Amino acid sequence: MHTDHGHHWHLETLGRLVAADPTVLASTDVRTVELEDPQNCAEAVTWWLERTEVGSEGMVIKPADFIRRCRRGLLQPGIKCRGREYLRILCGPDYTRRIICESLHSVSQAYRASSSANPCVASTSASLACWP
Hints:
There is one protein chain. By secondary structure, the protein is mostly helical. It is 42% helix and 9% strand. The strands form 2 sheets. A two-stranded antiparallel sheet has the order 1-4. Strands 2-3 form a two-stranded antiparallel sheet. A hairpin with a 2-residue loop joins strand 2 (69-70) and strand 3 (73-74).
């Protein structure tokens, strides 16, 4: 399965397969984001907002390592960041109501609190975005 190669290698390999016959596979837009660079992160957020506003489902954030291990085992391989319209379709038109957002925020806070002692959780934090 080529677990000894990083995520970029996998993307490049898949890119070559797509180029060989684009009728079989489709390419996706890819960005590499340096998490320690606030400007680079802001550009990634803008890119995500622009894509989701025109109908993209969202994006998946993955570490550069294909498989990341820590003392307690394997890390989650990716996090899906869905756009507002995709979430409205999945969760219903009321998902942006304040009470629902507050409930999701509570779940997010509880997860962060429980995972703060977990050495397998990445050091970056995320917050749920709710729109009025």
